[in-house]
Amino acid sequence: MKALQFSATGDLAHLGFVDVATPVPAADEVLVQIKAAGLNPSDVKNVLGRFPYTTLPRIPGRDFAGIVVEGPQALLGQEVWGTGRDLGFFADGSHAEFVKLSAQGVAHKPTHLSFSQAASLGVPYTTAWDALERSGVTKGTRLLVIGANGAVGSAALALAKIRGAHVLAAVRRPEQVEVLQGQGFDTIALGTPDDLGAQVNAVFKGGADVIFDTTGFWLPAAVAGLAPFARIAIIAAPVDGLVQLPALALYRKGGSVVGINSLLYTCAQCAVMLEQFGRFFDEGLLPLPTGLREVPLAEGLQSYEDVNSGSADKIIFLP
Length: 319
What we know:
Layout: E1 2-6, E2 15-19, E3 29-38, H1 41-47, E4 64-70, E5 79-82, E6 98-102, E7 107-108, H2 115-119, H3 122-134, E8 142-146, H4 151-163, E9 166-171, H5 174-182, E10 186-189, H6 196-203, E11 208-213, H7 219-222, E12 226-234, H8 247-252, E13 256-259, H9 267-282, E14 293-296, H10 300-308, E15 315-318
Parallel strand pairs: 8-9, 8-11, 9-10, 11-12, 12-13, 14-15
Antiparallel strand pairs: 1-2, 3-4, 3-6, 3-15, 4-5, 5-7
């Protein structure tokens, strides 16, 4: 089969479009014919060597949608989608014509989603779902999402709305504010870090119950916007991984910081999440993805370069 594969890390030049043997599933595994596979920034960072636990040689790619062509009888011919830490790191991933994985690692693809749409959602939606779950976002929760225009932030807004939370979006640019307001979300334009607490308290009197920072830059500033016993969920940090946290202010509010890392979850654990929120697409409660950039897998090398250069396009590989 055709696949993208790298045998060394540190440079995208190590990634090649090659012929490899089609994987053979074990008794408890499935073989999925890939119809679409998403390209995430973490896939690019993987080839660049940012994940030292990756074993080589390796086919990258976490998110996929396709059809089960080998495996348990009950799954044969089923349209499925999936994601998880295994793919691209400890086992070959989805940037290929086929992928094998645990039979428990696939979820039924929502019928309202095309293969490309489904392949675009795995990492951002499971990350957002985990953040809302672990930070306790339920009906009536006052939630601020920082970086609400990004893939994870957008997913968090949509999922929190279904949960009945009171949602406030925060973005940088005026045009982003207009877009989110047009979608029906209360939105603020981020100013300086010193202003954030006042901005949040002007909307949520007494502070937010949960602040979800998807950018990695607002953790210290977010403490001033917390209500008593509130939580800050984070999925990123500065390059050096260090921030100066105002611990005195945090503990006086009884606040907590919740780290969200999608790479902690296996494909089987992610499949449970996908089944939980996937039905909302078929029920018309979640927006269908738009603006996807579909690229033949054979042209995938340039797409990796594009993402590494800062492209915000959501790229979907079509084998």
